[in-house]
Amino acid sequence: MSESDQSGRLTIREKKAARLWQMAPWVALFAVTVGPPAGFLLAYLLTGAATVYLVLALTSIPFALIAAIVIALVIVFLRRRWARQLRDHLASDGITADEVGFFLTELTGGERRALRDMEKKQPLLADAYRETLALRLNASRLTASARRDLLLVERRISRARYLNAPDTAVLIEELGRDRTRLDGLKQEGASRRAEAEARLQMIEAAASRGASWAETNFMLQRLDEGRKHVPLALENERVEQQLREDTARELRKELTARE
Question: Could you give the percent of the chain with pLDDT greater than 70?
Answer without folding.
Answer: 75
